[in-house]
Amino acid sequence: MLTIMPASAPSFAKINLGLRIGGSRPDGFHELRTVYQTIALHDIVRVSVHRGKGIEIRCQDPRVPEDESNTCYRMVERAMAGLKARGRVVVEIDKRLPVQGGLGGASGNAVAALLALEAVLNRQLSGPERLRIAAEVGSDLPLFLIGGTVLGVGRGEEVYPVVDLPASACVVALPGVGVSTARAFGDWDWMTSPHAKQRPAELGGARPGDGARSKLTVADPSDRMKLHGREFSAWLRSASGVPVSKSRGRAETPLLDLVRTGIENDFERVVFPKYPELREVKRLLQRAGAFYASLSGSGSATYGLFASRSMAERAVARLAKADVAAVVTRTLTRRQYWKQFRVSSF
Asked: Are the CB atoms for 89 and 48 separated by under 8 Å?
């Protein structure tokens, strides 16, 4: 096979509008409930196919793995088999999002690599096949095949498009720390269940003293999930009847209503004690006028939603005075997401 015209695609980030952690599943994962929301921050992924075989990952950021542990590698490997294609695939990642930031950067990279690969080969997997492969590679990959506002259940890989929340100004604070998702789950297990079976540290298990100073009092996991389900169902029934194309105030109602349900990210309860600077970032965002602020995923990225871009810009200036790096961006509706998610030759 000769070298084919390469292609590039943006790789957007996500934030979590609330994240509820349930009990452990038989497969070792945790049951989750979350609302994913895509935002405009992104990496760039470039894919080319050459004579030969194999997969090569290239990235200037030394924290990004370039072997088979990279999500792009695993996605491309499965996609090439599904497309019955041959050749040596080179994936170049222009990293702009933080590593271990809770923004889904690696997952978005993999989906962008898939779509760019399809463009290069001029072949496409079916929608269900894309989702199946994405779920095999990682829990939050499928959301990037939908975009906008997405309900995530199961271990997060079972995704459903829901009523799209209106685009909002968003500030993403990027503290210079990395938070391991596996370790955060391990800390949650240790802090919420005195009978939780500890996993080895190398597998992300928690040990006494690893930021877990005391047990948390948490309701039964199944009860917490049922409560979350009822709260979300009530919000969804209300939001589905709101015509978001009318006045700005009317359009913002679904998002404000979701915030009023008391959505929160369970990871804050174990991450903030270990990284108090992240708790302070959230407080700074709230003091700057964010109508909702939260850790995204297990962090370390922390975001705030604002009523206007000017308010968001003032919040970034306020964070800068506290030596916290931050950027102004916006949430993307489903239509905006796919309008910007264009695969192009380079």
From this structure: yes
